[in-house]
Amino acid sequence: MKFFIDTANLDEIREAYDLGVLDGVTTNPSLMAKEGISGDERVKAHYKAICDIVDDNVSAEVIATDFEGMIREGKELAKIDDKIVVKIPMIKDGVKAIKKFHSEGIRTNCTLIFGPGQALVAAKAGATYVSPFVGRLDDISYDGLELIDQIVQIYQNYGYATQVLAASIRHTMHLIKCAEIGADVATCPLKVITGLLKHPLTDSGLATFLADHAKAAGK
Ligand code: E4P
Predict the structure, then answer these.
(1) What are residue 171's phi and psi, to 5 degrees?
(2) Ligand 1, closest atom to CA 131?
(3) Residues acting as catalytic residues
(4) Prediction pTM value
(5) Spatial separation of the C-alpha atoms in residues 97 and 95, rounded to whole Å
(6) Residue 57 and residue 10: Cα distance in Å, rounded?
(7) Cβ pair 92, 112 in contact under 8 A
(8) I need a surface site. Which of 99, 132, 166, 211 has the fewest CB within 10 A?
(9) Number of neighbours of residue 140 by Cβ within 10 angstroms
(10) Whole-angstrom distance, CA of residue 126 vs CA of residue 106
């Protein structure tokens, strides 16, 4: 399973990368705005800074919602670095743009997926990744994890190469359940990745080992 970090914050990306288990980064316009990044040149420079930290898979989202605009913007984003994956919303022109980028060898991440039919269309268009939003479905009393299960099943049925990138992951159990289901990737905040390390019995067990060692050494 690949771990992506869902942030545009460079310090958090560095911290996750330094842990040695990070496979990529997802951003969206809200996350970029949270870091105070705006204006074409600053946005591109920020994506470049992210690419310089990680090994691959930096999702950069287009703002345009028309086909020509998405193609123009996506090509500009793809030029920043080979690590860029162009993030395209699940709308009609977005599907057409994914198809075009696929034919040109540009990787895409189809975002804002809330239903299995949307994921099926994105795979048929040749998306590299689809991003179903688990937490946002849970927020409105739908089962986000069930959607992951449905998409994984559909892709297996037909052997689609599109990877299921579980997004809007809010806590460690979301991530663990996605791993059980077989999602290819989970993108989540830093606290979810670091949260996986924690167990109170690990902490108390380590404390006991160190105390016993000190006692035996006469300290
Ligand atoms: C990532 O690709 C998504 O934009 C992100 O996971 C959405 O997460 P949120 O629902 O916590 O905003």
Answers:
(1) -155, 170
(2) 2
(3) 87
(4) 0.96
(5) 5
(6) 15
(7) no
(8) 211
(9) 8
(10) 10
Alpha-carbon distance of 121 to 95, in angstroms, equals: 8
CA 55 to ligand 1 center in whole angstroms:
21
What distance in Å separates the CA atoms of residue 111 and residue 96, rounded to the nearest whole number? 14
Residues 102 and 126: beta-carbon distance below 8 Å: yes
111 ligand 1 Cβ < 6 A = yes
Q: Whose CA is nearest to atom 8 of ligand 1?
A: 168
pLDDT in tens, 157-202: 999 999 999 999 999 999 999 999 999 999 999 999 999 999 999 9
Residue 2, beta-bridge partner list: 185
Ligand 1 pocket residue status of 168, Cβ below 6 Å: yes
- Write out the chain's pLDDT in tens, 219 residues: 999 999 999 999 999 999 999 999 999 999 999 999 999 999 999 999 999 999 999 999 999 999 999 999 999 999 999 999 999 999 999 999 999 999 999 999 999 999 999 999 999 999 999 999 999 999 999 999 999 999 999 999 999 999 999 999 999 999 999 999 999 999 999 999 999 999 999 999 999 999 999 999 987
Rounded alpha-carbon distances, angstroms, from residue 6 to 82, 87, 140: 19, 13, 21
Contact 86, 74 (CB under 8 A): yes
Contact 177, 198 (CB under 8 A): no
